[in-house]
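Input record (one chain):
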Amino acid sequence: MRHITPIRIVAEISDSPLRPALSSQPSQGWRHDMSRPPLPIGTWGSISTRVAKTDEKGKPVSYLSKANFRDHDGHVRDVTAFGKTKTAAERAVLKKLQDRAKTNQSGELTAMHKINHLLDLWEKRFEGMVADGTRSPTSLDTYRRALKNHIRPALGELRIVEATTPRIDTVLAKIKTTAGAPTAKTCRAILSGAMKLAVRYGAISVNPVYEVDAIEAPPKNPPRALIGEEVTLLRKSLAADERAVQADLPDLTTSANPAAAQALHQAFEDADLLRPSAQ
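The corresponding structure, as predicted from the sequence alone:
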């Protein structure tokens, strides 16, 4: 039986940049790049500030603030600004960042715009549809009240990108509690239309209102069973109506089919046969 001598392999560690040492662990820089998500389009990273200039005594007289901004072509670029104080420099660069975010390919809407700006655009478009006759002026008045009393106070100062599904769901739930389900439904319709417009302009990619819970309310006139007097009146009215007789409706009034009974009940509610004009 052959004897196999174990061999020990020793890796050489070199400081030369031309001969980098191999390692089973990724470099810190590689791990950092892989774990950091890219900046969303039209947004920026943290702002850093340093002393740019000092006087003869070493006292700072100028500061430089800088932040990385991801432009709408996908490239990340430095945005810088100077100021006499640290606060002034940071304010100056923040203003530059905000102005840069307001300009995208459409030139009208970005994720960093406030929701109030989006609602202004949506309201203007709705006014145009009213002028064209495709929407009712009454609907516009209703929507304006909902905007003024509920939507703008709750969401108007947020950025479009901050209008997440959970946040909108919470706001609509509160509106339902304080103003009722019909008003909450109106507000949901407005927000859905506005966020749809934001998707069309490329400010966001998904309408956050789509996943919001449906707003339900008990019906104003819940179904009920007919009393004896109503059943008798219904049969007499159907028997006296020629079209009802041709459709065999009088025979259906004696049916034990629950679906037929429910259909007749709905027809009775719609016709309101107890009114003199229906007799």
